[in-house]
Fold these 3 entries.
Entry 1:
Amino acid sequence: MTVELRGLTWDHPRGYRPLEAFEAAGGAPGVRVQWDRQPLSGFESEPLAALTERYDLLVVDHPGLGAAIEAGAVLPVEDVFAARDLEVWRSRSVGQTWQSYHLHGMTWALPLDAATQVCLFRPDLLTGPVPTTWSDILRMSGVLLCVAGPHAGLSLLGLAGDRSRTGLLDRNRSIEAIRLLRAIWRRSDHEAAELDPIAIHELLAISNELVCCPLVYSYAYYGTASGDRKPLAWSAAPRLRVDDDLAASTLGGTGLAVTRRAYDRVLAVTKYARGLLDVGTQLDVVSPVGGQSATAAVWSSGLVDEAWNGHYSATLSTLESAYIRPRFDGWIAFQDELSERVRELLGSDGDPAVAVDRIEADYRARVRDAVEVCHG
């Protein structure tokens, strides 16, 4: 007898092809998952509680965890899977992907897909060395910034998020970052102002003038040529300062969450997760179709790296030290507000110091105990 489950993922090939390929390869014995797709924005526009009435599995991102937990939409993985399975999956996860789904003492999703902001460029159009600092970017032409939606704010967080977790921003770094971003924005191509990371990859792959986007969530899928699309390449996120040790990047990616609808089918869910997250599946099924696995073995595989134009070796160091943003209930709305303020700063002569102080004050007002609520 086959147990039928329903899942919801995002509608880019990176989001659905790995799941469909796993099913086509035989999937998990005795379990079949019907995967539906929707745009990433759909996860924010429809209440999570409504989705859990229709789906057993959700592909989620960690910044929305607070809202998902508050809505009772997802189950802690500790309530679903055996401790030995969780330890295996945790030990196999790359960078801080596992930690990004840990909040309030529990883990709320299994890392499935890993990504962070890195430097994206056209290797055939790059005339000088690969940029390693934001000062290098300032001297380049053919640059575009990723500032649509939440991405302006996420760039600032990557460059200047408070790693001590006592607040939102490192004040001095934030002021410096805004000045640099503003200078680059005034010299950059603005045709990408409304484009998300996927669209930026698409644009850069077909343009003959645009060379580099210094900070954008990477898609290994674009490391190969296709039709008019040229292969893209990546490098570590540029450093704000030459002596920076940590990546100037904000962690992204997605995780596999289990909803309350699946509570009485945990054996089937466990069987499915074991099959999907198996290292062999991730290497031989997920990666060949353009999946961007959260399994560390994929990121260290020379064969996978070569297949996707060096994406993994070029960006691993950035992924491993990326900033994990807050995840409290209400963070998504604040993230959108932050991005709008950063966009306004890029196009104005407003004092960065005043703006940073206001952002920090508003953040602290929104969250009474930032350390405990935001970072678990």
Entry 2:
Amino acid sequence: MKEAAQSMTPQEAAQAFFGQDDTAFAETVALLTKSDPRLAKVFQSTRKRFLDEQD
């Protein structure tokens, strides 16, 4: 995920997180959902919706 030493707009933050390549996103989500794997589906569906809106 993009390192941020400066303030980002919500759109920039979403792009930095959801715009990662598939492998990096999967690794990040695996770390974030370690304690509750059910959250992975939420991240994946939100990412899909975000990327669909970018097209």
Entry 3:
Amino acid sequence: MNDHPSLGLDDVVHQRVRLGILTIAHEARRVEFGYLRTQLDLTAGNLSKHLSVLEGAGLIEVEKGYEGRRPRTWITLTPAGTTALADEIGRLKQLIARVETTPED
């Protein structure tokens, strides 16, 4: 059985934008849609698609509401999202360790 760390990478989490969303949501605990859009340099439509994928996988919760009269959307990492992010980071660290310990030619 092959146990190479790359085999355990989760395509839902590992995609660059979604990994960024999960990381920012982890740091902030609750993050506003506009902040994510700005930080990740995305269009609203593109960000919405990535959020839908993460929400469908149960990794985030999306809450819509108002701040005063302005509509807002907040994103929170779920416990499953926290676990998935930690697992992904662990596998990435394993990959990095393999490169750092590989003798140079």
